[in-house]
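User: Hi! I have a protein structure encoded as tokens and I'd like to know what sequence might fold into it. I'm fairly new to this, so please keep things simple.
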């Protein structure tokens, strides 16, 4: 078969397959164009998940008729005036978005440049231009793409349902809105997922308000602000508390110079920072904004510009890990309020649905329990002395109903708590329930603490601090172990030789394709040295750190902490309970146990009063 030159329209459709994978990809490109045009308001509307219609309207600088005619040509752009790809300061730069959309849809653009007497309109149908026309469009630009993939019907079968495509478009708009709080964003759809985010300003407070608009006040209330700088990098954002975790990573938003990215470097850094707080199947929620010199990051490595490459990835990763760990440490015992809200919701629902329960207000301001007005009753009334009392009612209770003493130890409540203790964040201990849970009184509510989970975390943090201070004990192998590795993994392993040695794993090169292991961490005992080294080499080759060995050592400390902490079923004195509360308040990460579960739940007095109809 002879080589031939492809038809230009076919070339455009092939190229469009890299840039426009689904309706959300087209919306992303169009909204980025609007942001690059300096828009202060962007309105997005779609129908049928974006397949029938995509409309993006902005009030940016617009385009002249000459620029509009050139904008739909491939590789025509105004965003690289000097041709320097090492200092890209805009979201778009390739000049592929509009011609790619036009190759697979019917595209109509109305635009008017600032100061122009009249606007211009151009239409492109399945890659063929229909010429320029005058337009009465007042300002900025309006871009409409209809019947997406009509020219390439084979692509339609790879799209998901309309609802799923609508959700993907909404997520794209939300991600871009979070990075641009000074711009008003609206999103309209026929699937009921519309929103309108008013402009919030370009300050730190404005960004926090925009994040609350996009992710909800629940995230904002359970997140920690972080600020960090290192040489050419500056990192800001909000990191969710470890107890505010999710089943997937969809609530992780990362930006580099205002560009939303999904990159393995950041995914690994986030996992490493939360490693001590979450189980492997849970994911934190956060929004991180990394600013750096455009010359130290390459954004031209992915067709959809979803990935970036740093000239010094280790520096960028180290900044993210360090900033997140510092922010989480500053939170100390703080825990998400979602467990408390869930508990209150359950209690309220059970109270509402209790058999015979009537929650209508009574004339006395309270609530009647079983319908009808509450009946008055003499204070000294006794059923056993009533003429209507059944025979045998005054007999001693049967032994089968004797459940023994109550499982609540109220000895700490024998004396009122010291006022200063109540003022502490976790309050003063008042009782112990089922020899497992500590009930403490705070100035505006109460706290219920899982004594085993809380003490387990305290012991774990102490063991880690002891390891950092005294170092990792080593054991010398009687016969050094030779581990064979491929060149890539061996290079990654030897590049981290000093870091691994500090963690107790001493190794050295042993000819081509092999490493010689002389010492291992003594705490790991008799282990499969080959498997350990291979696992660490895999992680080093993928993410560039020694997290594998650190994870093994931390897992061992976690097991030790679990077995040497206060067990459920042990009765504590008031002094012990209060000492545990004070220790939690000053220990980083004390709000959750080593497995990511909360160590305490706080109930506000106002919420408790609502359960009794007093709110």
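Assistant: Happy to help. Inverse folding works backwards from shape to sequence: for each of the 615 positions I chose a residue that suits the local structure. Here it is:
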């Amino acid at each position: 078969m002879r080589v031939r030159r492809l038809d230009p329209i076919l070339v455009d459709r092939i190229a469009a397959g890299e840039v426009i994978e689904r309706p959300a990809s087209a919306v992303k490109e169009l909204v980025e164009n609007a942001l690059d045009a300096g828009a202060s308001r962007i309105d997005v509307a779609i129908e049928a998940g974006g397949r029938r219609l995509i409309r993006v309207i902005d009030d940016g600088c617009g385009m002249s008729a000459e620029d509009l005619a050139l904008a739909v040509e491939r590789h025509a752009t105004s965003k690289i005036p000097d041709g320097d790809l090492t200092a890209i300061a805009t979201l778009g730069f390739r000049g592929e978005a509009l011609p790619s959309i036009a190759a697979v849809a019917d595209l109509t653009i109305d635009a008017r440049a600032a100061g122009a007497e009249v606007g211009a309109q151009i239409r492109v149908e399945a890659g063929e231009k229909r010429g320029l026309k005058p337009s009465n469009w007042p300002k900025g630009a309006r871009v409409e793409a209809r019947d997406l993939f009509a020219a390439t019907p084979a692509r339609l079968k790879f799209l998901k349902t309309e609802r799923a495509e609508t959700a993907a478009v909404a997520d794209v708009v939300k991600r871009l809105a979070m990075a641009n709080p000074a711009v008003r964003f609206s999103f309209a759809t026929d699937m009921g997922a519309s929103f309108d985010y008013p402009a919030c300003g370009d300050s730190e407070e404005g960004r926090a308000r925009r994040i609350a608009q996009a992710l909800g006040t629940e995230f904002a209330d359970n997140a920690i602000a972080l600020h960090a700088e290192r040489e050419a990098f500056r990192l800001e954002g909000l990191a969710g508390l470890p107890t505010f975790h999710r089943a997937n990573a969809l609530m992780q938003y990362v930006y580099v110079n205002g560009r939303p990215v999904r990159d393995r470097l950041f995914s690994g850094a986030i996992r490493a920072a939360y490693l001590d707080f979450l189980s492997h199947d849970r994911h934190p929620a956060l929004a991180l904004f990394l600013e750096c010199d455009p010359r130290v990051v390459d954004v031209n490595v992915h067709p959809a510009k979803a990935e970036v490459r740093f000239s010094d990835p280790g520096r960028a990763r180290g900044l993210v890990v360090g900033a997140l760990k510092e922010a989480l440490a500053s939170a100390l015992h703080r825990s998400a309020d979602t467990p408390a809200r869930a508990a209150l919701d359950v209690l309220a629902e059970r109270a509402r649905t209790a058999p015979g329960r009537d929650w209508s207000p009574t004339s006395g301001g309270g609530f009647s329990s079983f319908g009808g007005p509450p009946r008055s009753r003499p204070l000294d009334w006794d059923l056993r002395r009533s003429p209507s009392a059944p025979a045998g009612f005054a007999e001693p209770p049967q032994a089968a109903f004797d459940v023994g003493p109550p499982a609540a130890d109220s000895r700490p409540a024998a004396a009122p708590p010291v006022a200063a203790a109540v003022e502490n964040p976790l309050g003063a201990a008042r009782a112990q329930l089922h020899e497992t849970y500590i009930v403490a009184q705070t100035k505006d509510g109460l706290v219920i603490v899982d004594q085993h989970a809380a003490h387990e975390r305290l012991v774990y943090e102490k063991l880690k601090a002891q390891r950092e201070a005294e170092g990792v004990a080593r054991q010398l192998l009687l016969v050094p172990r030779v581990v064979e590795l491929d060149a890539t993994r061996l290079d990654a392993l030897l590049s981290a030789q000093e870091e691994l040695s500090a963690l107790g794993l001493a190794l050295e090169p042993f000819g081509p394709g092999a490493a010689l292991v002389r010492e291992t961490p003594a705490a790991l005992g008799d282990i499969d040295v080959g498997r350990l080294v291979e696992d660490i080499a895999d992680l080093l080759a993928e993410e560039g750190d020694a997290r594998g060995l650190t994870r093994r050592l931390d897992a061992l400390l976690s097991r030790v902490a679990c077995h040497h902490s206060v067990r459920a079923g042990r009765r504590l004195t008031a002094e012990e309970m209060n000492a545990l509360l004070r220790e939690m308040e000053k220990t980083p990460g004390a709000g959750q146990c080593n497995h990511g579960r909360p160590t305490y739940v706080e109930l506000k007095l106002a919420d408790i009063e609502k359960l009794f109809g007093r709110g």
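A useful reference point when you look it over: Residues 112 and 139 are 5 Å apart (CA to CA). Feel free to ask if any position seems puzzling.
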